[in-house]
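Protocol step 4 of 6: structure prediction from sequence.
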Amino acid sequence: MSSRCWPLVALALLAACSEDDTSGSAPSASATEAAPSSSVLVADENDASAAPQKKGEATQADQTVEIAAGTVVAGSTPGDDGRHPSFEPPNLEFSLGAYRIDLLPYPNDPAKKPRTNVDRAEAEKLCAARKGRLCTDLEWERACKGADGDRYAGGKRWDPECAKTPERCASGFGVLGMGGALREWTSSAVPRIKGVVKKDAPVIKGAGPDAADVDHRCARRDVVGAETKSADLGFRCCYGDRPEASIPAPEWGPTMKRVDFPPEKLAELVRADPKLARLAKEEIKYFNEAPAKATILRRAKARGGTSELPENAEATTAPVVWNPAPGEEILLVTGLSGKDSFVLAYHRLPDGRHRLGASMVMENELGPVVLVYDKYRRRKLQWTTCLDCYGDTGNVTYREENRVVITQQ
């Protein structure tokens, strides 16, 4: 292959040239799943033009807020900044009965500081002494999101002042201090998730004052041991019958699963994104799998490299759904548009939409581009036009912050 001068960045347009046109209209392998809807989510997660943070004030001790029976759309959208896919469900709707919740964290008194350094058992006892109970995570999240489903308590964007004076920041229902400067115990637990949670683990909501902006989201769930005590870990009480609804734990799927996703559907996706729309001006094709695999091995051998795939490795040019973590599914596609090859990664949303996670477009590169993966290695795979050849290979990685990135080696 001819030399390349590609910058080592993801999400960029890269210059290159190539031999061997192995493109075709469809992958050679049979599909195992029907194609989902091709609509795209373009979300503004932290709109600077959003309405200002709602404010409130506690005027006396022991004030509570009545939350009417209704629904809460729990969790977050796949691809949201800060989202933990194994803990935060993908916008699942739950019905809850009416309940009351403390206006402020325990002791629910504006003249006193929140009670911290208590483990969950002690928090439960203190609520019971007031004829209450610890809130479930769904009750806490509904009180935080309010009727409008706010991203942060009382607003679409994070207001740093809420970490300084949380008792002044109100949710849409008027509950104060939710997620501002305190983590809070709930009575809920995350069931065991292989490789993530060893046993049922207590759920906490909210974040400390020095946490990252996205950690203050209403949807955020984290887990700690029931005996944990911390200066930034408190609680508040709820009153009324405890709801039966609970958030299910996600399950592991196969590392990779081939799916039926016609090029026409992919064209709809790229057309909806301004950065990628130009790809849809030409016919989008997938590479024919058998000759594509033969080409990347032949090129590698010609450059003194391997002529076989690594042990346990599989190679494909078909659209696949990647499961790098429980609760996360990512559509991966490689293909050709005119003279440009590409690798695209889309978060799959439960309502059939998709959300772009990462992209790499290679100008004047006819490919083929092949995905090479090890089914026992969840969080990283390889894209390549010449197996393990420098400059012609890169990685698709699911990073610790739960973001997908595409890079070149």
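Step 5 (inspection) to follow. The CA atoms of residues 61 and 109 lie 4 Å apart.
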